[in-house]
Amino acid sequence: MLVNRVAALGIGLVVAWLCLDGCAGQKQLQNNGLTIIFHQQQEPDALNAMISDMVATSDAVRPIQEGLVAVDDQLRVVPVLATVVPSVENGLVKALPKGQGMVVTWPLRRGVTWHDGKPFTSDDVSFTYRVIMHKNTRIATRDGFDKISRVEILDPYTIRFTFRQIYAPHELLWHNTGAILPKHVLESYIQDPDGDSINKAPFNRHPVGTGPFKFKEWVSGDHITMVANERYWRGRPKVDALTMRIVPDENAAFTLLKSGELDLYQSASINQFSALKKLDHVRLSAMPSLTWEHLDFNLGLPIFQDLRVRRAIAYAIDKEQISSKIYHGLYAVAHSDLAPLSWAYNRSVENRYPHNPAQARRLLDEAGWHPGLDGIRVKDGKRFSIRISTTAGRKTRELTELVLKHYLKKVGIELVIDNAPGAILFGPYPTGILKGLKFEMAMSAWSAAPDPDNFSLWHSSQIPPNGQNHVQFRDAELDQLLTDGTRSLRRDERRRIYQRAAEILADKLPMIPLLYWSQLDPINVRVRHFKPNPSSMGNMWNCYEWEVDTAAAGR
Fold first, then answer.
1. Are 351 and 481 part of one and the same domain?
2. 1, 111, 118, 290: which is deepest, by most CB within 10 A?
3. Do 413 and 491 share a domain, yes or no?
4. Domain range for residue 452?
């Protein structure tokens, strides 16, 4: 009935569909003073960021595992297990003569121990590279690592990588993997060159790291708990434990925050904004981010191989209304895979596809799709009926789907909603809906790094299982641009490259950018030093600094 009312009456009644009542069924976790409980809507598919690119995995492992670098809240790359970030300026990045590549030297931090007491050394970094390059490791992408031709352990705390070409975003390789892995724990799992035991190792549910918190337990479907690392190299954290509470339903998350059973409600529903402002024990953090919501086409399907069809769908959608009515204007309309925060953002691609249903209908007519008796278009006896998938339980996305269904029906396209839990939608190849190419249209978001390199998303070599190009886009000019974009250390040259790439994506439209996220993170006033991060690093990046103010009025 709701869908029919939306089709008849439009977006206003869609937005009215949102209650803030709690949902029963979640296991109760009591807040015991110096434990901080944070929310995650999705459950990780593993606790190893090497083999999972889910945001939920990143949130769960950031407090446990560390990389050589991190990205801070000002989008600066800062050292973590390294003592300094290599650069041309500090002499740790050197171009080889005659364009033969470059050498990058990493000085590592001394005195760091794994949670089991073993020392962290260069061997662990070298081993992590071996895991990444093992042919059966279920890694999202090897881009960048596959350009390394030589690894040299100079001493226990210095390692050098030789690249066969200039690779500009080299330092972010050691952020994107999520963490350095412990050789002494995992080496036996990659001994078999034809095996995939690294993907099935017990480590993936019980990780060992160097981070401020140690893994304690994972209760499937409910929570993941980690406790303070007494030997942490920065000093013991000021809180005793962190618990990631898995709450798929946004209304339930709101209720838990209201009652004080959650301290941090991450990426809260924008439709709860007014109600959140009324909670006197909650501080609201709203930050523009590098995350962008998008609508993807499966270009492997004949129906979407016609550019006129993709453009028609873009013209049919009123992104301005979605932004204002569903997201209260806090999520800005998106035009590109790069957010305005990026130094390579191209303003010339803005407003290429303004809301224009008449133009959408003309394009569909040209493509041979003509209205049938029920108003849905038909071509060669086939109705234009498309399935859309997104994360079940994320109310703003579910509302957006209903609105998209309304917009597309007006131009003669039937949209069938078929959602799934995040662990299934974003699951690994070949079983995951996106990576397994088992979708028709899909709505999700990518959280970007500060560097504009999106090789793994758009290069034709990165179609799963090789990378994250699950839309299966192929374009020779874009392939060359994305290759060239990593081969220069000059920012002005790279800016021109990525701005041209944005123009190709806007013209060829393998996906429709919908919205740039503003990260809405309500947090209990008792939590101090929380610093939201606009990048894919996520909010856990500085959890070692978090404190609990026991005198605060948080419930």
1. yes
2. 290
3. yes
4. 2-16+289-517
- The CATH number of the domain holding residue 420 is 3.10.105.10
The residues, ordered by sequence, that sit 6+ positions from 442 with a Cβ below 8 Å of its Cβ are 295, 296, 298, 388, 389, 390, 425, 433, 434
What angle is formed at CA 295 by the lines to CA 343 and CA 77, rounded to 5 degrees?
30
DSSP classification of residue 328: T
Q: Report the C-alpha gap between 105 and 159 in whole angstroms.
A: 6
**What does pLDDT average to in each consecutive run of 10 residues of the chain (555 residues)?**
32 35 41 82 90 88 95 93 96 91 97 98 96 87 91 98 94 78 94 80 95 97 97 97 95 95 91 91 89 97 98 98 92 95 95 97 98 96 97 91 98 98 89 94 90 94 93 98 91 96 98 94 96 89 94 64
- Is 447 domain-assigned? yes
In a shared domain, residues 356 and 380: yes
Concatenating the DSSP letter of every residue in 457-487 gives: HH-GGGSTTSSS-TT----HHHHHHHHHHTS
Smallest Cα–Cα separation from 197: which of 61, 60, 55, 48?
48
57: closest CA among 174, 179, 142, 230? Answer: 179
Nearest to 383 by CA among 359, 415, 360: 415
Structural contact between residues 245 and 223, judged by C-beta atoms closer than 8 angstroms: yes
Measure CA of the first residue to CA of the last residue in the chain; give whole Å: 39
Token duo for residue 61: 């492992």
| Chain-centroid distance, C-alpha 140 | 12
CB atoms under 10 Å from CB of 481, counted, come to 22
Compute the distance between CA of residue 483 and CA of residue 486 in angstroms, rounded to an integer.
6
DSSP 8-state code for residue 324: I
| Cβ proximity of 460 and 469 under 8 Å | yes
| Count of domains observed in the chain | 3
Residue 391, in any domain of the structure? yes
The runs of H, that is alpha helices, within 278-394 are 307-316, 319-321, 357-366
Query: SS3 of 359, please?
Result: helix
Q: The tokens of 273 are what? A: 């904004």
